[in-house]
Amino acid sequence: ELRPWQSRLREQFPIIAGDPDLAYLDSAATAQKPRAVLDAVTDYLTTENANAGRGTYPWANRTTALIEQAQQRVRRFLGDPEPDRSGVHFVSGTTEGLRLVARDWLVRHLRDGDEIILPVADHSANTLPWREAADQLAREGVTVGVRPMPYDAARDYDHRALTAMVNERTRFIATTHVHHVYGGDMNIGRIRAAAGPDAVICLDAAQGVGHLPLSVAELDVDFVVFSGHKAMALPGTGAIWSRNRRGSRFAPGGWAGTPNTSGIVSLAAALDWLEEAGVEWIARWTVALGARLTDGLRKLPAYEVLGCQRSLAADSPVQQRHGIVTFRHRRIGSNDLGFILAAEGFMVRADGHCQAEGGETTSSVRVSVHAYNTVDEVDRLLEALARLDTEG
Ligand code: PMP
């Protein structure tokens, strides 16, 4: 159900426009940029580039205003109902953002005997900082219990086991929004229900922002951290949104220096673009492409689909699979498969996927789609994979 302008959507992305044979299928690593974002950056740099917050002249004041507007843009995009009670801090990406939450919030707020719950099968950006925070506190004589989020790759988080694990000492839960390998929506509403009203929840939304609607009003989380570059903004951008509740006022220390002004401009422009395109539409479109790929792969005996994509029925009403599908060939190594596909114009992620601890995905191929991908790309990829299914 493409709207008329959406069939021309690919043309808005200069890097892939005009070359229908190139299939960029690695948007979970980084997304391509629409012309509107590139234009916003060029406009800013060619008309009013200055440093923020320290000028008496119009360009500097304008730059300060653009950054404040971008903070409001992030709040609006996240459906923040109380913009006066939240903070937005721009960072270089999710990795830096989560690290800052650990360093400048978590270590200051945990007390002896507190417990935290970690998503062990997640991206290492969302496990290592919390472990390091607990280790640092241990060295200072503060003992914090670190519990792994009960995880079953085939079914996502086990919310019932999570409910049993939460107790009055549970202070902090780190979770992801959409899993970067399995594509599963972690169902934050159920995590909040399991967590009870008092635990602080930090959401790694690196794969969520721009891919599916995300409303902090509904989710009742305390931190949302995401990368701008995965949401069609420039590399080196990202944000920490934090709500000043549950004692969670977040004031990162050492905040000084020149902000990434053109990157922040690109982030605001990217959020404009995504909203205009319609995040709900993007979710439906990318879920449909992911489902098409999964269903096609299931018919090819040489391939094994990993994670929750494996077990959910194609017509599942649960919006649980997003546009990320990870699989492996039973005989061809994933790295080799990546090279074979690259030679045919398919850009996919091959091999490991930055999971420090849990996960079953060492050596696999990940295909991830965004608004600009097409049914034709998925079908051509399936044809290429099918050739290896019979030859292999
Ligand atoms: N968390 C998740 C779920 C991710 O997918 C990624 C990027 N692959 C990161 C964190 C890290 O993001 P960045 O590299 O932009 O810091």
From TrEMBL:
<feature type="domain" description="Aminotransferase class V">
    <location>
        <begin position="24"/>
        <end position="381"/>
    </location>
</feature>
<keyword id="KW-0663">Pyridoxal phosphate</keyword>
<dbReference type="InterPro" id="IPR000192">
    <property type="entry name" value="Aminotrans_V_dom"/>
</dbReference>
<dbReference type="InterPro" id="IPR015424">
    <property type="entry name" value="PyrdxlP-dep_Trfase"/>
</dbReference>
<keyword id="KW-0032">Aminotransferase</keyword>
<keyword id="KW-0808">Transferase</keyword>
<protein>
    <submittedName>
        <fullName>Aminotransferase class V-fold PLP-dependent enzyme</fullName>
    </submittedName>
</protein>
<dbReference type="InterPro" id="IPR015422">
    <property type="entry name" value="PyrdxlP-dep_Trfase_small"/>
</dbReference>
<dbReference type="GO" id="GO:0008483">
    <property type="term" value="F:transaminase activity"/>
</dbReference>
<dbReference type="InterPro" id="IPR015421">
    <property type="entry name" value="PyrdxlP-dep_Trfase_major"/>
</dbReference>
<dbReference type="Pfam" id="PF00266">
    <property type="entry name" value="Aminotran_5"/>
</dbReference>
<comment type="similarity">
    <text>Belongs to the class-V pyridoxal-phosphate-dependent aminotransferase family. Csd subfamily.</text>
</comment>
<dbReference type="InterPro" id="IPR020578">
    <property type="entry name" value="Aminotrans_V_PyrdxlP_BS"/>
</dbReference>
